[in-house]
Amino acid sequence: MARSQYAVIGLGRFGSSLAKELIQLGNEVLGIDKDEEMVDELSDELTHVVVADSTEEEVIRSLGIRNFDCVIVAIGNDIQASILTAILLKDIGVKKVVAKALSELHGKVLEKIGVDRVIFPERDMGIRVAHQLVSPNLLDFIELSDEYTIAELAVPRRLSGMTLSELDPRHKYGCTVVAINKADGVIIAPTAGDKLEEKDVMVIIGTNEQIESLEREVIG
Ligand code: ATP
Q1: Is the CB of 13 inside a 6 Å radius of any atom of ligand 1?
Q2: What string of DSSP letters covers 39-52?
Q3: Is 116's C-beta closer than 6 angstroms to any atom of ligand 1?
Q4: What are the 10-residue block averages of pLDDT along the chain, 220 residues in total?
Q5: Does 76 sit in the ligand 1 pocket, CB within 6 Å?
Q6: Phi and psi (nearest 5°) for 82?
Q7: What is the side-by-side strand order in the sheet with 70-73?
Q8: Where do the H-state alpha helices sit in the chain?
Q9: Per 3-state DSSP, what percentage of the chain is helix, strand, and coil (rounded to 5)?
């Protein structure tokens, strides 16, 4: 992956873990917070850190934020500061602005301002946890759009030994198994004769309903 320059504004729990992960993934990260303590805590871990109030235009301009590949507004509780910061960033021409929203209304306002991506960490985490509670075999999933999802499902013992043509996910549920992760390697684009074994992980693509119906089969 290409090395990119990110700025994360607001170094609370969400902002700081996001910033650290971006560093782990090999990127440069500027961390900004108005609270000196938050900034000090991360000074050794991020590429640069600055104590600044992101609602002050001069400050934001002087940091050269316009040239960053992506700026993430991770301010949550202070909705006014979140919105003002997002407007400012779009106004100075930042290519990609991502902002965290704490409520649907907050998210709608951010979208109206022209924020490129709004994330709802708490809502999204709640949805993820609910799915995993209902279906313990569901290891992870990525929502590709409102309609489509990629899911990782663990193969239970009762399906062990079954071939893909016997499971027949495309005809029975409409979804496609795009890979099977086995102890000794990954089968990409598996074919009808490939066998499932307990503890294999199937990577499946389909609509949310299709995946849910397959999940029910897998739970048994
Ligand atoms: P989390 O759940 O991620 O801990 P939160 O949703 O509770 O965060 P806040 O506490 O509102 O969000 O904000 C996160 C961080 O953003 C805080 O460290 C706060 O100091 C910082 N912050 C808030 N307003 C500004 C601002 N105008 N400029 C810079 N930083 C700010």
Answers
A1: yes
A2: HHHHTTTSSEEEE-
A3: no
A4: 87 94 93 97 97 95 93 95 97 95 95 95 81 79 86 92 94 94 94 94 93 79
A5: yes
A6: -60, -50
A7: 48-51, 28-33, 5-9, 70-73, 97-100, 117-119
A8: 13-24, 36-42, 57-62, 79-91, 104-113, 121-134, 164-167, 169-172, 208-219
A9: 40, 25, 35
- Taken in order 178, 183, 185, 187, is the CA torsion positive or negative? negative
Pocket test for ligand 1, best of 11, 17, 21, 34 (most atoms within 8 A of CB): 34
Closest CA to 6 of 82, 97, 92, 87: 97
Q: Which of 55, 75, 79, 80 to mutate to test the pocket of ligand 1 (most atoms within 8 A of CB)?
A: 75
> In this predicted structure, what is the pLDDT of residue 115?
96
Tell me the C-alpha distance between 160 and 158, whole Å: 6
The overall pTM is greater than 0.85: no
- DSSP symbols for 15-30: HHHHHHHHHHTT-EEE
pLDDT at 125: 82
Q: Enumerate domains of the chain plus CATH numbers.
A: 5-133 (3.40.50.720), 136-219 (3.30.70.1450)
Residue found under tokens 């290409």: 2
Contact 92, 66 (CB under 8 A): yes
- Contacts (Cβ under 8 Å, ≥6 apart) of 161: 195, 196, 197
- Ligand 1 centroid to residue 100 C-alpha, Å: 11
24-39 core/surface letters (b: 16 or more CB in 10 A; e: else): eeebbbbbbbbeeebb
**What tokens were used for 99?**
């902002």
